[in-house]
Amino acid sequence: MEGRPRISPWAGIPCVPPRAVYDGGSLFTLKTYFESLTRRDDIGANSYLLDLDGCRVVLDAGLHPKLEGLEALPRYDRLAEDSVHAIIVTHSHLDHTASLPVLMDQQRAARVYMTEPTGALVEAMLHNSVNVMKSKGEELGIKEYPLFTHKEVERNVKRWRYEPVQRRFSLGKGTVAEFFDAGHILGSVGVMIEHGGQRIFYTGDVNFEDQTITKGASFPQEEVDTLIIESTRGAHPRPEEYTREGEVLRLASSIRRTLERGGSVLIPVFAMGKTQEVLMMLSVLQDSGELPECPVYIGGLSTKMTVIFDEFARSVRRNHHGFEILKEMDLEYSPRGKRKAIQYKPGCIYALSSGMMTEKTVSNKFASQLLHDDRNALLMVGYADPDSPAGKILEAERGAKITLDAGEPPVELWCDVDRFDFSGHSTRDALLDYILLVKPRQVLLVHGDPAAKAWFAAQLAELLPETVTIIPHPGDRISLCAPENG
Ligand SMILES: [Zn+2]
Ligand SMILES: [Zn+2]
Prior knowledge:
This protein is α/β, with parallel strands linked by helices.
């Protein structure tokens, strides 16, 4: 390490021994196990350890989006230094990647695998994280921020190995892996890991249906021994009348109405993924005449992320193959520089990050110019945590006073507010169908709130009674089932 001594960011957080060891008898082998490195039972800092006869693989390296400082990290304190052989990153979202430099600093010999588009996105997101942590460190007095530096990110990138989908690669020690397109965001994959005849499939975040740009997942169809599967939407059935096409048209008519009455539309979007999906949607709607031509604004990090999406427009499996958003759409850009705000104009669409309108972000600052006027509309297209400004606005009555930023006066809410379901996660029914298809002998439910996991567990108890379904809690160490003929 140059510059400063190596950090031990988990120092001071007590190390708790594994809370439970699941050993279901002869079906299972203690020589191979899964350990949840998450700190809480919600969707937070995703990271899981597989120990396969001593070949140790960490799946994902996230940070908890709602926590700060060391508490946001996975339980890397449970891993001995330099004890991990491989780290696999399934996709670029921060709940799967934002602590990768911390893990890599602790596991200096580990090989790190991801797809090339994921690498490009993660690199940009980690550099942005450094900047966000630096300003939070100063504003909130979090002394451990930033958890890593731009230099460390640069060094990390050199250690990453890019693997394409559907080509087997060795993780060493007799363990083989293969990526499969997960249909969740550019570059996202699930990973099949094989060791001693044992087949373990980790879905990462997955969507089996097409989005506007991203094509639905292309996952293996054969049976597996252990399936580690996300369960995000387990507690949220989709209305039967829902179709994605219908939802796109509903969004179009909402935008059209707003523009016709002389207002503007704010669509708060996550810079990576959702921005590009929404821009592509707007382009298609304008081409088909569902939407009139009008100025579309994007800003800051969204532009940088869109450059990366465009770079891979021809080389990945996707819809609108070859369509480069920045080249083919006539977009307006928000002014650069911290102090320059976008000025409101009527008759425009503003697709600005962040998606949850977090304080100090472009969408949050811009909203103060838009909410008070009933000609305007605020249209949400992604997940909004109930505690975030976007979540609070969704719950608020018309005329309510909204605090967008604790340091600014509240704004009255008179514009239209609506939300649309363009989730990048599979429906619970599609996930369940996948589980039934691959008939795992053991299912581990991850990446979901307790209610979501409970729904899957109840369904599986009835539909796959032979399968052992486990909800791993933080710190649980769970034996994996032995191969069928092992
Ligand atoms: Zn994700
Ligand atoms: Zn996730």
